[in-house]
Structure formats: structure tokens, C-alpha cells
Amino acid sequence: MVRTNPLRMRWGDPAYLLALGFGTGLSPKAPGTVASAVAALIYWAALGSLSLAIQGAIIGFGFVLGVVAITRIERESASHDHGSIVWDEFIGVWIALLAAGPAPLEIIAGFALFRLFDIWKPWPVSWADKHVSGGLGVMLDDVLAGILSAATLLVLNQAGLGTLLT
């Protein structure tokens, strides 16, 4: 993430509305964490009750829209992975929460694991962050962090530790 002067929100432009996470990316402190928390709340309130197939379709469509929107904004602003661009956090959190149950503590655990992997950037997250450019690169490292988070939740559940969260 590059922290430069903030992008100006263009409320009438769907690309900016999406890429800046409906305004969450404009948070003066920790915009990625704010966006991730809002994404987790949206998942808990709406997405989590949908079938896995519909969730996957929404996430896939959101990923494609994100790549297109972020690529355009990066081109216009001449910056890469600007700190205000947070749609990637939404998609990453939603992927992480695919493995969570409906219990609030499971949602919180998925959120926390996603933030851990997104900030820490273990391989392959770090590889994508360094080697894939443009909107795809911005989105891909968070997708991978979401996959690692979901896998971790699944392992915890298989080990019987998930029952501690319900």
C-alpha cells in the first residue's frame, strides 16, 4: 500500500465508489481495517445467509469489478495500491468468511485472521504483492490473504478449536 495524498472521492463515479469501499477508504486512520470491519458486518448481516454458490458468484463478480475499477483509478492517479483503495479488503474478508459459521466470534476470528495475513503478507501473499501489478495485483494479494484465512479457519474447525468460537 502506498500512502500519498488522499484520492478525492468522486461520489457519482461507480469506479471510485467501489474502489474506495463506499467511502471507507477515506478513513483518516487504518482505512484497510475500517473497510475490513465494514465488509465483515456486511457478510454477517447479508452475505453469510446466502448459499455458497451465490456468495461465490458475488465475490467473483466483485473481484472482476474491482480489477477493472482499480486499474482505471491507478491509471488516472498515477499511483499503485493507494491507501484509500480498499475494495480488495472487502473481497478478501468475504473469502475468509466463507469458512466461518454464523456465530459472531467466528466472524471476528475470520476478520482478525484476514487482517493478520493481509498485514504480515506471508508467501504467496507477499509474492503477489511484489510481482503482480495494476488492479489485478491490488486485488490478488488480498484474495490470497483471504484464502489463507479461510484455510486457517477450516484447520481450526477440524482440530475442534472452532467449537470454542460458537
How would you sum up this structure, described in words?
The protein has 166 residues and is mainly alpha-helical. The chain has one domain. The termini are far apart. The model has no long low-confidence stretch (mean pLDDT 92).
Count the E strands: 0
Count of helical segments?
7
Whole-number average pLDDT? 92
Please give the share of residues in helix.
55-70%
List keywords for this structure.
single chain; mainly alpha; 64% helix; 7 helices; 166 residues
Lay out the secondary structure:
Layout: H1 14-19, H2 31-45, H3 52-77, H4 87-97, H5 104-120, H6 125-131, H7 134-158
Helix pairs in contact: 2-4, 2-5, 3-4, 3-7, 4-5, 4-7, 5-7, 6-7
Short description:
The chain has about 170 residues and is mainly alpha-helical.
